[in-house]
User: What shape does this take?
Amino acid sequence: MSKTVEAYIEEINKDFSSIDLSVDDYGMHNAVVAKNEIHGVMEKLKEAGFNFLTDLTGSHYPENEGQEFQVVYHLHHFYNNLRIRLKVNLSKDDLEVPSVTDLYAGANWMERETFDFYGIQFSNHPNLSRILNVDDMDYHPMRKEFALEDETREDKEDKYFGR
Amino acid sequence: MSEVDIRKQAAVLASTETIDGEIATLNLGPTHPATHGIFQNILQVDGERILSAEQTVGYIHRAFEKLSERRPYNQITPITDRLNYCSSPINNIGWHMTVEKLIGADIPKRVDYMRVIMMELARIADHLVCNSVIGVDTGALTGFTYMFQEREKIYDIYEEICGARLTTNVGRIGGFDRDFNEALITKLRDFLKEFPAKFDEFCSLLERNRIFMDRTIGAGPISAERAMQYSFAGPNLRATGVDYDVRVMSPYSSYEDFDFIVPVGTEGDTYDRFMVRQQEIRESLKIIEQALENMPEGNYHADIPDFYLPPKEEVYSSMEALIYHFKIVMGETPIPKGEVYFSVEGGNGELGYYLVSDGGRTPYRLHFRRPCFIYYQAYPEMITGSLLSDAILTMSSMNVIAGELDA
Assistant: This one.
């Protein structure tokens, strides 16, 4: 019987105070981690065999006061074929989170992309600059306050379906 | 000393050994015929030797993730077409399966097998483009023209199921909009009969060709450790010797029913990437044959009236079908709240969809894990210290697709 995600988290849990592990309806393990511990948690998980960073991205929840932004990491343990999703919640006033580029070289562009679209600052990143958008853009377009369409348009108003 | 440092040192050493030791800046791209897409690389070169490279990407960024936040789920399929446009069916079907995972749909076995056939055809088309273009970049144009003829036949098969060739928009959430017809089966059987001989000819042109081997062996190598560090996936990772394949590791769409091997390389250089793709084409043929032989009877779509459009005759004659049709077209489907990550083995590796639904008519957040975007960042490391002509080969053998890179 190979080790479960719970066992791995249990092992590193004594060093960290903030890991909140849960399993969602789709069988995926979600761990919410405080931002000052994320680098340490990732380091320990990498040592334990979660050495493939599948994905790193961000998202914006303007309704969640104090936790408006989220950085989402997907890690994969190849030997036991386990996946875990780590989340770091950030307040809109303090968007700084430690970079994991020193652990996973592939995180470099993924973090730049997240910075580009959400404005999340990754500290200790070697080159945190825009990647897909033009350099002189002065906002972060994936944030929810930027509607895709011009909100002042009236010709598309739909009084029957309410959108 | 790390692998990167060793290469950098070699590059510096090479630069002092040249005749005049003069360093030039060279713009490779954005629109250079040898880069097959819009990529810019600013190279520092000493004669033919590359000392450093700096990439600029984003030239065809189309804000797909932002667009997805305003589109109902079934309208996102055409967006996925335009990611890796060499193998659109894989992207489409991957997206459908992501939504099916979110809503917990029960998919008939026949749909799984039909999907496997479409996805493996797409993989063959994708790998054919990549490998024949490696030939072109080494100066062997002949194989390319022959293989593109074969790719046309795959596109003819696409046309029978969805009417389109490049941006296929194939299938629906829950399955397909129509069953495989007679013409498709005939074309598929013809393809399976005729393609292997043609492909063998292509193999004999390049696989053991001394000039081709001299040109590609040792060009643009990367070790397994560095490839894992860079989150490589797909043929590029397997060429380094790591046998990671999503189809085997986390089987989807009944891939566990099929008998196939996962080819791996050893050196992670251009030749290994080429050979891994060659072998994968043969394995894909095997999978298609198995799927066609064992195709189960049944429906070509799942029984999910909330998401799958009813047949047109019923829409015009029955009230219930009309209501469902109207609700689906208007995007009023009961999507549960949830957060899913689903991945398929795309032409270039693990193609992932991270979807957050808040129960609304459009995704709250949709992120594509695009393998090209992730592995292209290793390119400077792979070409530093090598010759300019090897850099071109390395790029084409990595199969960097601009659409997937920039999303």
